[in-house]
Design goal:
The protein is α+β, with helices and mostly antiparallel strands. The chain has 3 helices and 7 strands; from the N terminus they run E-H-H-E-E-E-E-E-E-H. Strands 1-7-6-5-4-3-2 form a 7-stranded antiparallel β-sheet. Strand 4 and strand 5 form a beta hairpin. It is globular. About 25% of the residues are buried.
């Protein structure tokens, strides 16, 4: 099994603290950021950053749906880590200042991929597909925070 990684980033014309707060707000802002690939969204514990437990289904392709139950931690300032209890997937959101009134958001997901030919296709196509999904999340985040 090889590790698969997908990374997407965007510069947003909003203060890093405001952008981070929107990402960490699993009760209010976060559900508004999610495109149609996400369904059955439910906060099960907490709801604001560290200590949150959130569930959703992620439809990566027409046939591939992941049932995600994510534990949220904040290991350092400006960083949210979502660890999926149902798989090896870990998604890290990093928000850093990027100049006056701007922030850079980098989202990286890593997981243990399949072996064999299926693993080859997963390593080849999954990062692009997940990148498109997270591009949409970041575009929605920009719309919510650039005001």
């Amino acid at each position: 099994m090889a590790q698969v990684e997908a990374t997407t980033e965007r510069v947003i014309a909003a203060d890093a603290e405001a952008v981070f707060d929107a990402l960490a707000d699993y009760n209010g802002a976060r559900p508004k950021l999610l495109p149609e690939h996400f369904s059955e969204y439910e906060v099960r514990e907490g709801g604001d950053g560290e200590g949150t437990l959130v569930h959703w289904k992620l439809q990566a392709t027409s046939k591939r749906v992941r049932d995600c139950l994510l534990e949220v931690s904040e290991p350092t300032d400006g960083e949210l880590v979502e660890k999926d209890r149902n798989s090896s997937m870990v998604t890290t959101w990093r928000v850093t200042p990027a100049g006056e009134g701007k922030s850079r958001v980098v989202v990286t997901s890593v997981w243990n991929g399949a072996g064999g030919i299926g693993g080859f296709f997963e390593r080849t196509f999954a990062p692009k597909g997940l990148g498109r999904i997270y591009d949409a999340v970041l575009a929605n985040l920009a719309t919510q925070t650039e005001k």
